[in-house]
Amino acid sequence: MTKKMFFAGYGGQGIMLTGQMVASAAILEGKETTFFPSYGPEMRGGTANCTVIVSDKPISSPLIFESDCVLAMNLPSMLKFEPTLKPGGVLLLNKSLIHQAAKRDDITKYEIAANEMASELGNTVVANMIMLGAFVRTTGIVKEESIIQVIHNVFDQKKAELADLNIKAFNLWRD
Amino acid sequence: MSNTKKVLMKGNEAFAEAAILGGCRYYFGYPITPQNEIPEYMSRVLPKRGGHFIQAESEISAINMAYGAGAAGGRVFITSSSPGIALMQEGMSFLCSAEVPCVILTVSRCGPGIGGIQPGQADYFQATRGGGNGDYKIPVFAPSTVQEGADLVYESMALADKYQNPILIFTDGLLGQMMEPVALPEPVVDIKSTDIREHKPWALTGYWDDDKKRNTVISLRLQPERLEEHIHKLFARYEQAEKELTRVETVGIEDADVVLVAFGTMARIVKEAIDMLAAQGIKAGLIRPISLWPFPYATFDKLTDKTKVVISAELSMGQMIQDVKLGVKDRFPVKLLNRTGGMIPTSLEITERTAAILKEIGG
Question: Are residues B181 and B257 in the same domain?
Answer without folding.
Answer: no
